[in-house]
Design a protein that fits this description.
Number of helices of chain A: 24
Number of strands of chain B: 4
Order of helices and strands of chain B: HHHHHHHEEHHHHHHHEEHHHHH
Largest sheet of chain B: 2 strands, antiparallel
Shape of chain B: globular
Number of helices of chain B: 19
Structural class of chain B: mainly alpha
Number of strands of chain A: 22
Strand order of the largest sheet of chain A: 10-22-21-20-11-18-19
Oligomer: heterodimer
Distance between the termini of chain A: 81 Å
Radius of gyration of chain A: 33 Å
Helix content of chain A: 40-55%
Strand content of chain B: under 5%
Radius of gyration of chain B: 23 Å
Structural class of chain A: alpha+beta
C-alpha cells in the first residue's frame, strides 16, 4: 500500500498565493482610490462605451458649469464626474486584489539564481531569467527551482507552498507522472537535475502573474456580447435625449444642456456598465481564492454552461482510501473472533485501511488496542505475498487477498472453508474489497473494505442534477463494482474499466450532441482528454503535459473542486444578468423623476402629475436621480465583487428568484431612494 | 351585438386560424403542399430556379433587395405614367414625383401610407396594376423573411436558409391569393363595390345639387389590403366608407383578415421549430399586449370627449365624434388597435378625433415595434428579435450563456438583434425632430401645441413602422413629408428585415445545444413576462419623453387622465 505524501486538504486557502482578503482591504482600497483617477485616461475609457458616454457628458457639463456657473450646474457636474470615478473605483478594486498577489509572485521570480549544468558536467551560476528552454539545471536541498521543468535525474522532496499554499512537502522524481516541477518552489532534500521546459516569460508563475493581475485581460465572449447590448442601449438613448431639444422648442420652451446630459446618463445602463469588468475580474479572483487558476476567462464561462461532468472515482467521489465496514465469519467462527484476529493482524499496519480495521473492531466489540508483549514480529505487505500480518511466536496471523490466502493455507496443508468463496464474491459484487483473515491454517472470515463515498457528495450530485448537469463516474474498477459505487454515490452514469481512449471517446460522444463537458485529470495519458474537454481541470500534482492540455489548474489537486468551478462560472453569469436587469429596471423611476422636471415649462406644467414621488423641485428631482445613479454603483461594488448569491436549483426557480430581486426590486428601489435623497437635499436646504 | 360578443367571436375565429392556418403555412414553407404544382413549376422554370437550389442568407437578402428595388421602380413608373395608361375613366393625370416616390416606397414596404385620396388621385390601373400587386407581394416578402428567421432556429449546421423566389411564389399561390379571393367574394356579397365603371353623377333635384360618387374595384382590394396587413384602401376615408366596409360583419371580417396571418405565424414558428409550446409562448405575448391595448383604448373611447362635455353635452355612446354609428365606440377602438398593432394601418374611424389617451393606444401600439401580432411576417421577425434580447438577459440570470431553442445567443446575434431593435426608434425620433425643427415640417400639422406634435409624431411613427395608419390632421402631401416619409418607410422596413435575414443565416449555421433541466425555459409564463418586459421597456423608454410632450400632456391638461 502506498503512502500518500502529498495529500492536501481541500480548504488550503488562507496561505500561499491565494491569500484571503477582506472585501475592502486597506492598502487595496488606497491603491484603488488612486487608480480611479489614472483610469480617467480617455484611451482606457473608450473601451467601455457606456462609461465613455458618461465621461464625455461630464466634460460637456463641466464647460457648461464654467460658462453658466450655479450651484445646480456644479452639483450635477460633480456627481457626473463621480459616476465615472465610481466606475473606475469598482474596476480598480477588483484589479487591486489580483495586483497584491502578483506582487508576491514577482518577488519570488526575480530573486532566483540557477546552477546551469554545462555539457562537460561543470556548473555555472546564472540568473533564472536567462535560462532558456532545454537548459539543464541542478537543484539541491534549499535551492529554489529556477523555472518550470522536468526532472530527468534524481528524486527530491519539494516544498510547493509558495504556489499551492500547502505546507506539506511533495515527492518529485524523474520518469512517470510526478516528474514536473514548477519554478519558484523549493527543494528540501536530495539532488535533482531538471530540464527547463518553459521559455523565458512563459513559466507557470509568469502565467499566474498575468492572470491574477488582470492586465491585458481579454474580454470573454459573453462579456463582449453583453457589451454590445449595453452599447445598443446607450446608442439608442442618445437620439432619445438629443431630439428633446427640437421637441421642447416645438412646445415653445427650452431644456438645459446639463439636465439633458443628466437624463442621458440616468437612462443609459451605467450601473452594469460600471461594474461589468469588475464582475469579470472578481469572478477570476474567486477562482484564485479557491486555488484554481483558469488559463482563460472563456473557460470560466464555459464552466457555467457545462452539462456533463466526468469525475474520477478516487478522490472525487470516494475518499482515496477504503475503510473496513464489516467482519463476515465463515461457518464455525463468530464475528467477534474475526474482529479480534483482524485487529491483531492490523496493529502494525499504519495504512488508513489498517487503521480503519482497528477502529471498526473497537467500535463493534470494544476490542482495545493491545500492547503486544513477548516474542512478536510484524510482517509487512509485499507485492509478491499480497498479505500482511503478525507473527507471535509460532502463531502466524495474516490478512490478505482471497486467492493469496487460500494458496498460503493449502500450501501448509490446511483446508479452505466451503462458504468462503461465496462471501468473497458477495463482498466484491457490492463494490468492496474483501480481505481474508487467517490464523495459522484456520481461515476465520472476511473483512469488508468499503470504498467510502465522500460525505455530502450525494447531495452535491443531486444539486447538479437539479441544475441539469449529468455526472459520470470514471473508474478503473470492473463494471460490477463500479455500478455498486455509482448507485451509492448517486451519479447518473459511470464508465468502468476506463482507459484514456474510452474516456476520450465518451467526451467526443457527449460533445457531438452539443453538450459541454468538464473533467479533471493529472496523468500524461489524460492530456488528450483534458484538451478535448470544454473545461479541463489539471491537478497541480500532475504532469506538465496534463497541465498544458487543460484550461485550468487546481493548485490543491482536489478533483471535487470541479463542482465549485461550475458554481463560480454560473455565479459570474448570473451576476452579469442580474445587474443588467437591475440597471434597465431602474430607468422607469428615473423617468418619473426627470421628465416632469425637464418639461416643467410645457403647456402649463401639467406634467407635474407624473411627479409621483412628489419631489421638491425640478432641480432637486434631477439632482436626486443623478446622485442615486452614482451611489448605486458604489452600493453594488460588494455584490459585483462577491457575486450574486448562488443556490442550486432548476433554471425556472433561479430565474424567478433573480427576476423578483433584480427586476421587480430594480423598479421599486430607485423610487424609494430618489425620494429619500430628495428629502435629504431639502433638509440640507440645498434646494 | 355587444362588444363582448364581438370579442368572443373574434377570439374563437382566431383560435382556429392560429391552429389550422398556422400548421398549413408550416406545410407550405416546408414544401409539403403541391396542389398548385402546375402553376409553381413554370414560374421556377422562368426564374431559372427550383426549390432544391437553396440560398445563403446573403444571396437570399440580395434577391429580396433586387425584387423590392424593381418593385419600387415599377410602381413609381406606373404612377408617373398614369395619364397615358389604360383603365383611367376619370382621365386622371400623372402623380407628382415626390408623391409617387412616397407612394411607391409605401406600398413596396407594406406600409400603405397614403398621402393622396385614392378615388381622386389614382386610376383603376394604378390601383390594381401597381398598388394591389404590391399589396400581394410586399406581405409575401415579409412572410418569407420571417420564415428565414424561423428556419434559423429549426435548421442545424446549415449554410442555406431557403430560396427567396420559391418562398414568395408559394406564399402568393398557396396562402395570399386563395384566402383573399374567398374573402373578396364575401365582402362583395355583403355589398362592397366592385366595378371598373367610372364615377356616378347623381342630380338631387330636391336640394338642387349634383353629386359625383366615386366607385371602383374596392371590394377585392379591401380583402388583400387586410389579409396582407397593407391597409391602403381604395377610398380616402378607407374602411369607414360604406362602399368598402358595408356592414358590421365586414368590419369584423376585416379585423379577422388582418390578424389571421400574423397570429397564425406564431403557430407556424412553433410547428417548424418542433415545439408548439414555443409558438404558444409568443402567442401569449401577443394576446396579453394586444388585449391590454384593446381594453385601454376601448375604455377610453367609451368615455365622453372632454371638449364635448365642456360644451355641456352628455353623450351616452362614448366619444362618438369621427366614428361610424354602424360600428360604435368600442368596436371602432378594437378596429383601430387591431390595425396599429399589426402593420395594417387601415381605419374605420378618425384617430384624430379620439380622446387624447385613446389616441395614445394606436400610437404606442406602433411604437412598441408592431409585434403584437405585427405585420405579416414583419410582426414575427421583430417579435423574435425582442425575444432574443429577452433570452440574452434572462438566460444570463440562470447562470448559463444564453440560448434560444438550443441556439447559443452570442455577440453576433446580440449585435444583429440590437440593430434590428434600435433602427426604428432612432429613425422615427430623428425624423420627427427634423420635421418639428424645419418650417416646412411645422407647416404640416393642423393643430398647434401638443396635438400638433402628436400629429407629426404619429405620421412618422406610422411610416417608420410600416403601418400606414394616419391620425389625419397632418398635411402630408408636401415634398418634405413625402420624402422624409419615404426614407422613414424604407429604413423602417429594410433596416430590420436585413438584420432579421442575417440572424436567420447565422443561427442556421449553428448546432443545437440539447435541452436540460438547467436550460432557460423559453415557453413558460416567466419567459412570456420577460419578453413583454423587453418590448415595453425598449419601446416605452425610447418614446416616453416624446409622448409626454404629445398625448400625455394634452390629456393631463384636461385635468384628468381618463
Amino acid at each position: 500500500m502506498t503512502t500518500v505524501i502529498n495529500e492536501t486538504t481541500p480548504d488550503a486557502s488562507g496561505h500561499g498565493v491565494a491569500q484571503a482578503r477582506g472585501l475592502f482591504d486597506g492598502p487595496i482600497l488606497r491603491q484603488a482610490l488612486k487608480d480611479s483617477f489614472t483610469k480617467l485616461d480617455p484611451r482606457v475609457q473608450v473601451k467601455n462605451p457606456v462609461m465613455f458616454v458618461v465621461l464625455v457628458g461630464s466634460i460637456i457639463a463641466l464647460f457648461e458649469a464654467f460658462a453658466h456657473p450655479g450651484t445646480f450646474t456644479w452639483s450635477i457636474t460633480v456627481w457626473l464626474l463621480l459616476t465615472v470615478l465610481f466606475a473606475n473605483f469598482a474596476e480598480a478594486m477588483a484589479e487591486g486584489r489580483g495586483k497584491a498577489q502578483a506582487e508576491t509572485l514577482r518577488k519570488m521570480r526575480s530573486e532566483t539564481e540557477a546552477r546551469r549544468l554545462l555539457p562537460d558536467g561543470s556548473e555555472e551560476l546564472v540568473p533564472a531569467a536567462e535560462l532558456s528552454k532545454g537548459d539543464l539545471v541542478v537543484c539541491e536541498a534549499n535551492d529554489v527551482i529556477p523555472s518550470d521543468g522536468e526532472i530527468i535525474e534524481g528524486i527530491a522532496s519539494v516544498d510547493e507552498s509558495a504556489i499551492t499554499g500547502e505546507s506539506a512537502p511533495v515527492i518529485r522524481e524523474s520518469g512517470g507522472d510526478r516528474s514536473a516541477v514548477t519554478g519558484g518552489t523549493k527543494v528540501l532534500s536530495d539532488r535533482i537535475v531538471v530540464r527547463i521546459t518553459a521559455e523565458r516569460g512563459h513559466t507557470f508563475i509568469d502565467r499566474m502573474i498575468t492572470l491574477v493581475e488582470g492586465a491585458n485581460r481579454q474580454k470573454t465572449p459573453n462579456e463582449i456580447a453583453l457589451t454590445i447590448l449595453l452599447a445598443v442601449l446607450t446608442i439608442v438613448f442618445i437620439p432619445v435625449v438629443v431630439t428633446l431639444v427640437p421637441f421642447a422648442n416645438f412646445a415653445h420652451g427650452s431644456v438645459s444642456v446639463v439636465v439633458l446630459i443628466a437624463l442621458l446618463v440616468c437612462l443609459i445602463p451605467t450601473t452594469i456598465g460600471a461594474l461589468l469588468s469588475a464582475i469579470g475580474i472578481a469572478g477570476m479572483d474567486r477562482l484564485v481564492q479557491r486555488n484554481v487558476l483558469a488559463m482563460s476567462g472563456r473557460a470560466v464561462e464555459a464552466a457555467g454552461d457545462v452539462q456533463v461532468l466526468l469525475l474520477d472515482k478516487t478522490g472525487t467521489i470516494t475518499l482515496g482510501n477504503r475503510m473496513a465496514s464489516h467482519f463476515y465469519p465463515v461457518s464455525g467462527h463468530s464475528e467477534q473472533e474475526v474482529a479480534d484476529v483482524a485487529q491483531l493482524a492490523s496493529l502494525a499496519d499504519e495504512t488508513p485501511e489498517g487503521r480503519s480495521i482497528v477502529v471498526l473492531a473497537k467500535e463493534l466489540f470494544d476490542i482495545r488496542e493491545r500492547h503486544l508483549e513477548g516474542d512478536h514480529a510484524f510482517v509487512p505487505f509485499t507485492a509478491t505475498t499480497r498479505m500482511s500480518g503478525l507473527d507471535m511466536g509460532p502463531r502466524q496471523i495474516r490478512k490478505g487477498a482471497g486467492d493469496s490466502v487460500k494458496r498460503w493455507v493449502t500450501e501448509q496443508g490446511g483446508t479452505v472453508p466451503s462458504d468462503l468463496d461465496a462471501i468473497v464474491e458477495r463482498v466484491s459484487r457490492e463494490g468492496s474489497t474483501p480481505l481474508v483473515v487467517v490464523d495459522g491454517v484456520d481461515i476465520l472470515g472476511v473483512i469488508e473494505l468499503k470504498d467510502v463515498v465522500k460525505q455530502g457528495i450525494r447531495e452535491k450530485f443531486e444539486e447538479m442534477r437539479q441544475m441539469g448537469i449529468r455526472t459520470v463516474m470514471i473508474t478503473g474498477d470492473n463494471p460490477l463494482t463500479a455500478a455498486a459505487i455509482a448507485q451509492e454515490a448517486g451519479v447518473d452514469d459511470f464508465l468502468a474499466e476506463a482507459t484514456p481512449e474510452a474516456k476520450m471517446a465518451l467526451i467526443k460522444k457527449e460533445q457531438e450532441g452539443g453538450k459541454l463537458v468538464a473533467m479533471t485529470g493529472d496523468g500524461t495519458n489524460d492530456a488528450p482528454a483534458l484538451a478535448q474537454a470544454d473545461v479541463g481541470v489539471a491537478m497541480n500534482t500532475g504532469t506538465t503535459a496534463a497541465k498544458e492540455a487543460g484550461n485550468m489548474v487546481d493548485l490543491d489537486s482536489n478533483p471535487t473542486k470541479l463542482l465549485d468551478i461550475v458554481e463560480i462560472g454560473k455565479q459570474l453569469l448570473i451576476t452579469r444578468g442580474s445587474l443588467t436587469t437591475f440597471s434597465i429596471a431602474n430607468d422607469i423611476a428615473k423617468y418619473f423623476a426627470i421628465i416632469p422636471a425637464l418639461f416643467a415649462f410645457a403647456y402649463g406644467d401639467h406634467l407635474q402629475a407624473l411627479n409621483v414621488m412628489k419631489l421638491h423641485s425640478p432641480q432637486s428631482a434631477v439632482l436626486s436621480a443623478v446622485i442615486f445613479n452614482a451611489l448605486v454603483i458604489v452600493a453594488l461594488i460588494p455584490l459585483a465583487l462577491r457575486g450574486v448569491k448562488f443556490r442550486a436549483a432548476n433554471s425556472t426557480a433561479i430565474l424567478r428568484r433573480n427576476v423578483l430581486i433584480y427586476g421587480v426590486g430594480g423598479i421599486i428601489v430607485p423610487f424609494v431612494f430618489i425620494k429619500l435623497i430628495d428629502l435629504i437635499l431639502v433638509a440640507l436646504h440645498a434646494y | 351585438m355587444g362588444f363582448f360578443a364581438t370579442i368572443l367571436i373574434l377570439v374563437i375565429a382566431l383560435g382556429f386560424t392560429w391552429r389550422y392556418l398556422g400548421s398549413y403555412m408550416a406545410a407550405v414553407f416546408d414544401g409539403r403542399v403541391h396542389f398548385l404544382g402546375f402553376v409553381e413549376r413554370p414560374i421556377y422554370r422562368l426564374l431559372k430556379t427550383s426549390p432544391e437550389q437553396e440560398q445563403t442568407w446573403k444571396r437570399y437578402a440580395g434577391a429580396m433587395i433586387i425584387f423590392s428595388f424593381v418593385s419600387l421602380v415599377f410602381t413609381y413608373a406606373i404612377l408617373r405614367l398614369q395619364g397615358s395608361l389604360p383603365l383611367n375613366p376619370q382621365h386622371l393625370g400623372a402623380v407628382g414625383p415626390a408623391l409617387s416616390f412616397n407612394t411607391a416606397s409605401s406600398f413596396v414596404t407594406n406600409t400603405n401610407w397614403q398621402n393622396y385620396g385614392g378615388e381622386t388621385a389614382m386610376s383603376y390601373f394604378s390601383q390594381m396594376g401597381s398598388l394591389t400587386v404590391q399589396q400581394f407581394v410586399s406581405p409575401a416578402v415579409g412572410i418569407a423573411a420571417a420564415i428565414v428567421l424561423v428556419r434559423g432556429f429549426s435548421r442545424r449546421k446549415s449554410a442555406t436558409i431557403g430560396n427567396f423566389w420559391v418562398d414568395i411564389t408559394r406564399c402568393l399561390f398557396y396562402v395570399l391569393l386563395p384566402i383573399a379571393f374567398v374573402a373578396g367574394i364575401v365582402i362583395v356579397a355583403q355589398g362592397a363595390v366592385q366595378t371598373l365603371a367610372g364615377t356616378v353623377t347623381i342630380h338631387d333635384s330636391l336640394n338642387g345639387v349634383t353629386q359625383t360618387i366615386p366607385r371602383g374595384p374596392a371590394g377585392f382590394m379591401g380583402s388583400i389590403m387586410q389579409l396582407g396587413t397593407n391597409g391602403g384602401g381604395f377610398f380616402n376615408v378607407d374602411l369607414a366608407h360604406p362602399f368598402e366596409n358595408p356592414t358590421a360583419f365586414t368590419d369584423l371580417l376585416y379585423i379577422w383578415l388582418t390578424l389571421s396571418i400574423p397570429v397564425a405565424l406564431t403557430y407556424t414558428f412553433g410547428k417548424m421549430v418542433g415545439s408548439i409550446k414555443h409558438g404558444a409562448a409568443l402567442l401569449a405575448v401577443v394576446v396579453i399586449l394586444f388585449g391590454s391595448w384593446v381594453a385601454f383604448t376601448s375604455y377610453s373611447e367609451h368615455q365622453n370627449n372632454p371638449a364635448v362635455v365642456a360644451a355641456g353635452i352628455h353623450s351616452t355612446v362614448g366619444n362618438a365624434e369621427g366614428k361610424e354609428v354602424r360600428f360604435g365606440d368600442t368596436t371602432s377602438a378594437l378596429f383601430n388597435v387591431s390595425m396599429t398593432q399589426t402593420s395594417d394601418g387601415a381605419v374605420d374611424s378618425a384617430t384624430d378625433s379620439y380622446n387624447p389617451i385613446g389616441g395614445l393606444g394606436p400610437l404606442t401600439g406602433m411604437m412598441l415595434g408592431e409585434v403584437t401580432p405585427g405585420g405579416t411576417g414583419s410582426g414575427l421577425y421583430t417579435l423574435l428579435i425582442y425575444a432574443i434580447i429577452a433570452v440574452f438577459i434572462g438566460g444570463l440570470m440562470i447562470g448559463r450563456t444564453p440560448e434560444y431553442l438550443g441556439k447559443k445567443i452570442q455577440a453576433r446575434e446580440v449585435k444583429l438583434a440590437g440593430l434590428g431593435a434600435l433602427v426604428m426608434p432612432m429613425t422615427v425620433l430623428i425624423l420627427t425632430a427634423l420635421a418639428v425643427s424645419l418650417a416646412v415640417g411645422r407647416a404640416g400639422p393642423l393643430n398647434a401645441g401638443p396635438h400638433g406634435f402628436s400629429e407629426i409624431l404619429y405620421a412618422l411613427t406610422s411610416q417608420g413602422n410600416n403601418n400606414g395608419s394616419a391620425m389625419a390632421g397632418l398635411t402630408g402631401n408636401t415634398p418634405f413629408y413625402n420624402v422624409i416619409g419615404a426614407i422613414d418607410m424604407l429604413i423602417g422596413r429594410f433596416g430590420i428585415i436585413i438584420p432579421a435575414l442575417a440572424l436567420g443565416g447565422i443561427l442556421a449555421e449553428k448546432d443545437v445545444v440539447p435541452e436540460g433541466l438547467g436550460t432557460f425555459r423559453t415557453h413558460n409564463p416567466m419567459f412570456v413576462g420577460l419578453t413583454i418586459g423587453v418590448i415595453l421597456i425598449i419601446g416605452g423608454l425610447t418614446f416616453f419623453p416624446a409622448i409626454s410632450l404629445g398625448p400625455i400632456v394634452e390629456q393631463l391638461s384636461h385635468l384628468r387622465f381618463f
